[in-house]
Design a protein that fits this description.
The structure is a homodimer of 325-residue chains.
Chain A: H1 3-10, E1 20-22, E2 29-31, E3 37-47, H2 59-75, E4 80-90, H3 96-112, E5 116-124, E6 130-140, E7 155-159, H4 164-172, H5 184-192, H6 198-205, E8 211-214, H7 219-230, E9 233-237, H8 247-250, H9 254-261, E10 267-271, H10 273-285, E11 290-297, E12 303-308, E13 311-315, E14 320-324
Parallel strand pairs in A: 4-5, 9-12
Antiparallel strand pairs in A: 1-2, 3-6, 4-6, 7-10, 7-11, 8-10, 9-11, 12-13, 13-14
Helix pairs in contact in A: 2-3, 2-6, 4-5, 4-9
Chain lengths: 325, 325
């Protein structure tokens, strides 16, 4: 594969962002940030056979997801994605068709947010694809949603539903065999082509004090990060956790997927009780599913508790622990 | 290796940039760009066994170079590096000591420019290290140095000397055997720990019209990029090309290293004749070596010509071509 030819083909012919001064085609890209905004930056890497497999996902789907997981991090700050850079290490089995489809998948997700590809690198590697995506976005000054501002009495919420991506992966790995009655395509799509919750993040950032994480490592892990950063106890209720109705058909222990499955790329966080109604109604107006799943509790060590009927369970980042009555 | 533990250890305790609002520790980093500046962004990947080998370079040196090559791209825009993000795919042979030293090498280069590490990812891979560094810098509004503004009559210059990095690599690969009289350490250091020319880039950006590239792919390649982007003919003179005196001792065809060796990470570009004296004296004041190596010529197709005594040779990106008279 000729690198110059590849660069020519992936270089966008048009750009979306008017503040872009120099895109691909010089030593670095140059853009003019908006004066009323702060810049938001993140990077994520996906490795073949670790994060994706071409017998599970098409190159298009892999590319789509590689950008989506980064855009989800921007959503979790309440930001708007603007630019992305792609660095891709290509193994000997990576022919031109695969690489082109990877970039098309990335472009499909990026186009839906009017993001411009402004840089990258293509290099050779000996065994597996390694795809690194950097995303740069912006958020209005002082409006970013962090993890450290949760307070006693806040409502704990989640946008969208939980456990679907893990269910999709299980179906792919033949660990969960869906009957005809189960909408398998729904779960597969959630796993292979997750949609970042940018619009929900925008609503969050319009309120004065929202803590926010995207659910990449599982709900328990994300809420623990908020509990630690804010030094609060978070209590969630098992029967409030939003799921697709078919999830319970796929697995008896479906709660495992919901709490620890991860890769849902929905948002979870906390908001003051006094803002809840307005927040909920704004989400509804925009067709965003938002569910109240618990509350920030008073005077406790930083922790996450799950209430399931009369039982209280302490949720650690990666599993249950320390059962209490 | 525990990822959380690693992140804790590499997370900077202090930060340099006062405009950094949220560094490592949330879904994304947030910073306030300077209102009189434009943002400059680039990304570069280095793959083990392709771009580096641990029997040639220590992990510290590899980390240092991984950031240096990106900072050099910022230098080539006339910019100042501010932040960097590191994504690293770690193979089974990548133990904690190697990874820690890689980050220490990156930090050593970054510290010298007061750059803050503001994000990254650590993932597993099956065979080779893949290190991707994103650097974000800034340049005063309208002051970035591009490739497309060269004009007839401009002086062609280079900062520092050429061919040293390629000579260093040859010594490492036992292709060039240095005698005792040769300063081998000089060439090895140029190859293993290149110093980006940020200060020289700043002087360039203070002039109204400078075209600029860093010499990563070899002088011939970089000047061809300027010639193409600016639609001009560039003529350089072989006897003006600055080299370390020992270079000629190492190899009879040393000009190959100078023109096509690459990885020198000095800057090359063009500046109007009327600015040359002032430019040269500013460089001298700051102890920066700058050499006039040729001129932009009138009325020719985009190309790069080498004058060597009476011979004129057309320089292609990757080699000689099309010998004339």
């Amino acid at each position: 594969m000729d690198e110059f030819d590849l660069i020519r083909r992936i270089t966008p012919k048009d750009t979306y962002q008017r503040s872009l001064i120099m895109g691909i085609g010089d030593d670095a890209s140059v853009y003019q940030p908006h004066s009323h905004c702060e810049e938001v930056v993140c990077v994520d890497t996906m490795v073949e056979h670790v994060h994706f497999r071409f017998d599970f996902s098409t190159p298009f789907e892999v590319g789509f997801k590689a950008v989506a997981v980064n855009v989800s991090d921007i959503a979790a700050m309440g930001g708007t994605p603007k630019y992305y850079l792609v660095s891709i290490a290509i193994p000997p089995h990576g022919d031109e068709t695969i690489v082109t489809e990877l970039y098309e998948g990335m472009k499909a997700l990026a186009d839906s947010y009017h993001m411009d590809l402004i840089g990258g690198d293509t290099v050779a590697t000996r065994s597996d694809f390694v795809i690194t995506v950097t995303v740069i976005g912006e958020v209005s000054k002082g409006k970013a949603c962090y993890r450290h501002s949760a307070q006693t009495g806040d409502v704990v919420f989640v946008t969208g539903e939980l456990g679907s991506s893990a269910a999709g992966l299980s179906i792919l790995m033949n660990k969960a065999a869906p009957s005809k009655a189960v909408d398998a395509d729904f779960f597969l799509k959630r796993h292979k082509m997750p949609q970042p919750h940018i619009a929900a993040g925008h609503i969050c950032s319009s309120f004065p004090r929202v803590t926010l994480n995207d659910v990449s490592d599982g709900l328990a892990s994300e809420l623990n990060e908020i509990a630690e950063a804010s030094c609060v106890m978070i209590e969630i209720e098992a029967d409030k956790l939003p799921i697709h109705p078919d999830l319970q058909v796929l697995r008896k222990d479906w709660l495992e997927w919901v709490l620890f499955g991860g890769e849902d790329f929905v948002l979870t966080g906390t908001i003051p009780e006094s803002n809840w109604e307005s927040f909920e109604s704004q989400c509804q107006k925009e067709g965003i599913q938002v569910t109240r799943i618990g509350q920030v509790k008073d005077d406790q060590a930083a922790s996450v508790m799950l209430k399931d009927n009369d039982q209280q369970t302490m949720l650690m980042k990666k599993g249950y622990n320390h059962f209490k009555k």
